[in-house]
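Q: Hi! First time asking for a complex rather than a single chain. Here are the components, and I think there are two in total. Is that enough to go on?
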Amino acid sequence: LTGESIRVPLGDRSYDVEVGRGLLKEWGARLHACGARGRVALVTSTPVDELHGETARRSIREAGLDPLALSVPDGEAAKTPAVAAELHERLLDAGAERGTWVLALGGGTVGDVAGYAAATFMRGVPFAPAPTTLLAQVDASVGGKTGVNLPRGKNLVGAFHQPELVLVDLATLDTLPGRQLAAGWAEVAKAALIADAELFRYLESSVDAVVERRPEAVSRLVASAIRIKAEVVGEDERDLNGRRALLNFGHTVGHALEGAAGYGTLLHGEAVAIGMSVASRIACELGFLSPEDETRSRSVLERLGLPVRLPAVSVDAVLERLKHDKKVREGRVRFVLTGPIGVASLHADVPHSLVRDALASLTSAGDGMTPSHGEPHP
Amino acid sequence: LTGESIRVPLGDRSYDVEVGRGLLKEWGARLHACGARGRVALVTSTPVDELHGETARRSIREAGLDPLALSVPDGEAAKTPAVAAELHERLLDAGAERGTWVLALGGGTVGDVAGYAAATFMRGVPFAPAPTTLLAQVDASVGGKTGVNLPRGKNLVGAFHQPELVLVDLATLDTLPGRQLAAGWAEVAKAALIADAELFRYLESSVDAVVERRPEAVSRLVASAIRIKAEVVGEDERDLNGRRALLNFGHTVGHALEGAAGYGTLLHGEAVAIGMSVASRIACELGFLSPEDETRSRSVLERLGLPVRLPAVSVDAVLERLKHDKKVREGRVRFVLTGPIGVASLHADVPHSLVRDALASLTSAGDGMTPSHGEPHP
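A: Yes, that's all I need. Here is the structure of the assembled complex.
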């Protein structure tokens, strides 16, 4: 099996993200090599279980481990405090101990709730996700963010809990619906836009290969995005010094949009694509990003099949949601802006009116591509 | 104000435990010096609020902070997932952000649930407890263990979340009922028994002063116990290398007893005192602890007003509970044993029959003071 290991450098909590095609067949052996023993809890959802459960369980059993299957609902319905509590109960039923590993096989929601359950079970048990969506592979599974949603917002309850090992089997992307795949590419584009101009040029030049799921392009882009994320997380594990906050490019508006549109309407990556489109608009207005680079940023997203304009939601509903964003500090919304492509910075002083105008210009009816330089923003 | 600062050495998560009489009047200023700003959530229970709430709030306000009072039930009733969830809701109601500090004013249960709520709100917000019971001052408030109970056991759900500052106002002990105070001295005796023979001799020589609450003895013992805990936590933050596990001396049987007797029947410190008595019995049987030191260990506890024999519970019920202890690894109960006084070690191989005999010999009817050296324990 070909593949590569990407180290997330976090001192005594460092771990590897292993990336390659067909790695799921080796999951058990690699878990065992990292210290897993005896009974392990395997959290998954029914659709993922049908596709990959048997491969995973066989690999786990072949390594001498004893997988206990725990099923969670599909999609965001899994990310609730009640599901995490149910996982705890089932872990107790199974006699789980402080050394019992929790594995997650599935997309970001499976990983988030399983990771949160692992983080809070007996003050934390070992966690190892094998993400099966592109979004989870390049983003959610690296960095230790776990959590569940409350009715008032996403990820309002959660914990940092670094995994022991992340296994990225690129073959799981073969069965991923195109819409979900595109949503994952949004995070890859994000990584390039905030940190790697060269990777962005490669993405621009290989959009066709990406859309056709050609293994070489997929592999290079996924590994590069993970490498960027690993580096940022290594510098700012707990999102404290501003470095990790740059990964939130597109997420401030993205999260607000997901909520305003009704969770489940937009995929996370789609909401982030729109959020990046809005942030690029703002960055251009403020003079950080050239009009050409604003266009390039948006164009790649569109060519990847992603939305770059607001769905049918009111601008006011989005603005109201922004107020409750976790990234709010002392009442001010913080925006990540790019400029030039490959460089990102954090801004706490974006005028409210500019945010409103950018949102309004990118409603489905609006013409977001017409810059409005020079307008006053009191 | 006199007082001293004890550093808990945890790299970029290091913090100070400030110990002295009357420190609560300076809480606000010290929180501000550590970075607290604006609105802070002050979690407390009604009885503690009546005694110390006004002093705390005035101090917080004088430092320019805005305390939001959040009340939790008194005692173990506070340590439930539902109370933690309610704290989250109230934090959201109040517009809490990722930088909002959560303060805890009260005993261990207030600190545990407030700390857990802080650990899991938006993946962790700053936490600063001012423990008002001796038990919480010398034990629970240092080291970052937070959690809530499930019907099946204590602290089954929780997280490690180091505080920013721990404020120990020894004057809060003046109003503490004698039984609760004694329960706290159990943890001080524990610290001496596992790590500091000289401190144990001082404790033996000053039991009368301790029982009379003489400030000098109280201050020296509390600070010494915190120093021991800080050192152990600094070496083994997450309870991984066995060092921190030594702090569980008396806790293995203690936790089982608390549950078997019905939560609330025994105070935690009382259960730990009995647990230490049982562990000393086992250590003597195994030849680690001399019969004289077994007697000294138990005698200090009794003179402090602590129980050293099992209450009216069946030995089988205690043994059954032991199986579900968090400290179980691969099915084996791990015991911390002392020998000689001031030195502790971890044992995973204590024969089941020996545990049973030690428990049986220390039932209220039994005669635990008669050693039974030489009996076989297959």
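A: The two ends of chain B are 58 Å apart (CA to CA). Let me know if you'd like any chain examined more closely.
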